[in-house]
Please model this.
Amino acid sequence: MSTRFQELDWRQTPLGELALRRRWYPGIGKDVYEIKLNDEFLMSSLFTFAEEELGRLALAELTEPAVDVLVGGLGLGCTAEAVLAGENLRSLVVVDALGEVIDWHRKGLIPAGVASDPRCSLVHGDFFALLRSDGGLDPSRPGRRFHAIVVDIDHSPRHLLHPSNADLYEVEGLRRLREQLLPGGVFALWSNDAPDERFTTTLTQVFTEVRAEIVTFDNPLQEREAANTVYLAKRA
Model:
């Protein structure tokens, strides 16, 4: 059995106090990794099914034999791992605003394995700022476009980590994102909230084949079923 609780690292960042913790949960018999920003939990490995399903659902929309994917938000690496498991994946770029989180992956403090996969590049950058820039989302290849852009950063289109992120969820921001996709490309977004009819309507103004998938999973702590939402939308 592991130590009941251990703080693996703590950093002061421009966004506040960032901590990586490992906790032993006797009820489920395994270590759980947690990332906490100030007083808010960003991610826990106790609940990863919806984040994994986000990556799987995005790749399931693609029929090309070799696809290039960008993930906005690294966290514990769950979405990136799901994308890397895709048989037709050629390359993956993961953008995260917190260099400390990237450092944890490269040092092996987070045992996801994404940092060691040769198909995967970890980029320290603000996804939202890159989206507004002329160069695009991959600083190493300005103008590059992707078969899928998968985003797991904010809690939902209404509950943001920072107010400046809000423009992504409006028509102009979504149009900028659409231009980063290849024809037929897929935009996939994770949300902790139930499907938002207003946001779905906004998506239909920019994309085709828009839908909101409800992803359910067991919550072993509360002994009940929980649900997240995955939004999927295609560029015509």
Remarks:
- The mean pLDDT is 93.
- Residues 46-234 form a domain with the Rossmann fold fold (CATH 3.40.50.150).
